[in-house]
Here is the input.
Amino acid sequence: MKHFLSFFAILFTITLTAQQPYKFTTITDLEATPVISQGITGTCWSFSSTSFLESEIIRLTGKKIDLSEMYQVRNTYPLKAENYIMRQGRAQFGEGGLAHDVMNSVERNGLVPEEAFSGLFVGETVYNHAEMVAVLEAMLKTYVDNPGRKLSKKWRSAIEGVLDAYIGKNLTNFTFEGKQYTPQTFLAMTKIQPADYVNLTSFTQAPFYSQFILNIPDNWSNGSFYNVPLDEMMATIDNALEKGFTVELDCDVSEKTFSSKDGVAVIPENAENNVKALQGIYPEKKITQEYRQEEFENYDTTDDHLMHITGILQDQNGTKYYKVKNSWGTDETRVANGGYIYFSEAYMRLKAISVTVHKDALPKNTATKLNL
Here is the structure.
């Protein structure tokens, strides 16, 4: 009888432990600009990457500058349209993109502050690109169908006209804090060097320590990624944060165990705990390189959303979490943690598609293997 009582006492203790509400302790918390909303747009790639660059400017110069997200969106759409038309409609066109699209745009077009180019017109307070995207898609389909049997050169100016009407005309110069700038001189003032940033991923369809084009839908511009083992990708994230560098993240947020309302993202060992694990601690699955690959290849891990990693936390059991800045606003009825989501280490290992970091944030052994 005593053995049975002891058994049930242990089982009861384990059950209580498994259901502990989350209590987080901050380990590393790097400076970032306030959380804002991308509104009704699919431009998380620009919002997150711009937030990443804002933190980089703080690190490099000490200046807190609110950069324009829509300036890079405005300058990226013509390239998407060109790609779609020149590939005769057999290419991705939509609102999605990746971090390197912002870096490429910054290198070509410079940077501007939000106050100089908001992408909103008088009376507008929320971004909503639904109509604009529908118009652009209809136009591009028409150009690809080529009803005139000879595609005119007017389509480029027509696309520019739509973007002017919905987002705004491009800038050549502006005033910021009493000084005149062009987008390129403003970029120079921020000390951002786009060539200093590298994209890392971890998949076994390509050799490790090589570069390859990651075939995901939003990689419309065929950007290359350095491929490293999963443990090294995670070590890079940790090394960056510990050394004062924030990290740009492309990830899967389609899982039921990702919740902006609860403010956590986890991978419970037992799927029966998926919902309960959003409010309390449950054992998590061990994520191996092989399991990560399997989930990617069967479409259970998909390229959904880009966010910005700014810190590290621990729960009361010592489990590591990552503080991840989202772009869905701060409405407390919809999001927790002031708009941040805490990713468990297991979730990050499984659901991080890629990361972008400054080259100086790489661990030395990884940088050497990549010849960086």
Notes: The CA atoms of residues 210 and 227 lie 6 Å apart.
